[in-house]
Amino acid sequence: MTPLQHYLVLSGALFSVGAWGVLARRSIIMVVMCLELMFNAVNIALVAFSNYANAGAGRGEVFVFFVLAIAAAEVAVGLAIGIAMYRLREKLDVDELDEMRG
Amino acid sequence: MHFSTPIFYLVSALVIIPAVLMVAMRNLIYSAIAMIACFIGVAAVFVTLNAELLAASQLLIYVGAISILILFAIMLTRRRSGAICLFFHRQSWAALPAGAALAVVLGIVLGSARFSAGSAPKNPSTANLASLLFNQYAFPFELASLVLLVAIVGAVLLAMRERRS
Could B73 and A47 be called an inter-chain contact, meaning their C-beta atoms sit closer than 8 Å? Predict the structure, then answer.
């Protein structure tokens, strides 16, 4: 059987790709999509721990359900902010959002 | 080497390759399609971890709902001249080394970590998951629906706001 560490390394790799995307891309929609990648990476780690844990098997999967619900809410609000930003200034560039810069 | 290890590497490639393509591709529509492929790969990972219900939920929620929502947002924010092609910004050259460094650190730490968890999976069943979700975690489960309701109302309020001229 595949060791637990393999799944954790896969999760870490996916999380890093998501972090790269969040840092590198300019479009606010792309940033939201890369955040979803990071959510998925965390879900993989949670399910792997849930599957290999000695005690309390299945609790990690319950947690993943709540992560799914919160991720859906986050996507809806994030995309609504993107659309409101587009309505306001016809742009999606996160670099343009600098009104609150000190 | 056990039979499941080659399958794990195949499924990992199904997750990582679309993810890298998604970040690297210029067109937002292509990125969204790569993201859908990556989500299907994650569902396959859940199947290899004996989490069939979560794999189905992943397909329904991520591939079915969230991807369509993102595609709609991309379509709604098109310019008259075509899709907005924002790509990398000023600090992007630093993002790839930062992401690679994070990957190396996470890989070393997670790959060498030793847990008290056994090396063999315990295969928690869907019935076990359901009894946890509807007995011990019933109240948080209902609370999640409230969070979703608030998020829906907030999203509608944000997106429907009229432009003040």
Answer: no
